[in-house]
Design goal:
- The complex is a heterodimer.
- Chain A has eight helices and seven strands; from the N terminus they run βαβαβαβαβαβααβα.
- Chain A is an alpha/beta fold.
- Chain A has a single domain, classed as Spore Coat Polysaccharide Biosynthesis Protein SpsA, Chain A (Alpha-Beta Complex).
- Chain A has a seven-stranded mixed beta sheet, sandwiched between helices.
- In chain A, helix 5 runs parallel beside helix 7 and helix 7 runs parallel beside helix 8.
- The radius of gyration of chain A is 17 Å and the shape is globular.
- By secondary structure, chain B is mainly α.
- Chain B is built from four helices and no strands.
- In chain B, helix 1 packs antiparallel against helix 2 and helix 3 crosses helix 4.
- Chain B is elongated.
- At the A-B interface, strand 3 and helix 3 of A face helix 4 of B.
Chain lengths: ~240, ~130
């Protein structure tokens, strides 16, 4: 008689969307791998050595042929994770702003029964290093998300998140860009349990920021589009 | 026949001929063929029989032939714009999906190649 199998171990994967992050991706992958062995970098058609550097650091690399945005990179990553049967997905930026030492806290919050855990820079003082325009934008969209989704969170645009894979399956596909508000709002409206933990996110020290003038100009329009899509078409 | 009628006639004939040629070369679907043939025939009809527009004008309750033609032209342009807009969005979504599929297939292929490499003393050595 064969011994009965023990409880199934939780399989965790870290997803790192990256575009032209060769200056930072190596350190990020190495630091994440100390906590999560399976690290996947989704290289969104970088023109630099991001994919190669990520591979050298020990990550599985999925390379987009065309640059489509963070949302598209995450969509690819989610699909990879779900198809391979991972139970938990941790998502972290490649620019070094998200400190991997918070990963255990994100995972701990998930184990308390939450479906989505968001790292918030507004539960500590690190948000003060951001420009007032960016702070105001984040606060406004967070307020909007809270009003529309019945939430009480502080940082709806944060990309430092952890999910239960089962919960993620309930959500629709992300838009190619500016995905965070839409995902959070949809998660709230579908009754997923959401929690925030305090995560310090100082401004990036290396590499070039992906935020430029067009990002700031397009952001409100794309978020308005996301919000309307959720309110009108996703129940 | 006025110059504008000649121009209208030429444009109408051009649309008819081009549309026919595109379908023959299988570069256009039937719906597009019918659309452009309709537009071409309308242009030819109005150019050859300018008074025909008066019937349409009266039927629509408009007072000037020029207004009638412009109004109809703008309405048709809106329909075409809507169709083009939808086609662009569909293509954009298709590009995104293909991008995703290709990247995952490439990753899978690299994984398979890695798995099929012989293990042992010579593992990882390039010839």
């Amino acid at each position: 008689m064969s011994p009965s199998p023990g409880p199934k171990a939780t399989r965790v994967v870290a997803l790192i969307p990256a575009h032209n992050e060769e200056a930072t991706v190596f350190e990020v992958v190495r630091a994440v791998r100390q906590r999560i062995p399976e690290v996947v970098v989704i290289d969104d058609a970088s023109s630099d050595r991001t994919a190669q550097v990520a591979r050298e650091a020990g990550a599985v690399v999925i390379s987009h042929a065309i640059n489509r945005g963070v949302g598209a990179a995450l969509r690819t990553g989610y699909r990879y994770a779900l198809e391979r049967g991972f139970d938990v997905i941790v998502q972290i930026d490649a620019d070094g702003q998200h400190d991997p030492r918070y990963i255990p806290q994100l995972l701990e919050a998930l184990s308390e029964g939450y479906d989505l855990v968001i790292g918030s820079r507004f539960l500590n003082e690190s948000y003060r290093s951001y420009s007032w325009v960016r702070r105001a934008g984040i606060r406004f969209f967070t307020w909007l998300g809270n009003r529309l989704g019945g939430l009480r969170i502080t940082d709806i645009t944060s990309g430092y998140r952890a999910y239960k894979a089962k919960a993620l399956q309930h959500l629709g596909p992300l838009p190619d860009r500016h995905w965070a508000v839409e995902q959070t709002l949809e998660a709230a409206r579908k009754g997923l349990r959401i929690k925030e933990i305090s995560v310090e996110m100082p401004l990036r020290q290396k590499g070039r920021s992906q935020f430029d003038l067009s990002t700031f100009l397009w952001y409100p329009i794309r978020v308005a589009d996301s919000v309307l899509r959720i309110l009108l078409f996703r129940r | 026949m006025r110059l504008i009628n000649v121009v209208g006639l030429l444009v109408g004939v051009y649309l008819l001929v081009q549309s026919y040629r595109l379908v023959r070369r299988r570069e256009e679907d039937t719906l597009s063929f019918l659309t452009w043939t309709g537009v071409g025939l309308a242009l030819v009809g109005v150019s050859l029989f300018p008074n025909a527009a008066d019937y349409v004008m009266r039927a629509l309750g408009m007072e000037m032939r020029a207004y009638t033609i412009f109004t109809l032209g703008i309405l048709i342009a809106y329909v075409l714009l809507f169709r083009l807009f939808r086609a662009v969005i569909r293509l954009d979504q298709a590009i995104s999906t293909l991008n995703e599929e290709i990247s995952l297939l490439k990753a899978q292929r690299e994984r398979d190649r890695g798995a099929s490499r012989p293990t042992g003393a010579g593992a990882g050595d390039e010839p």
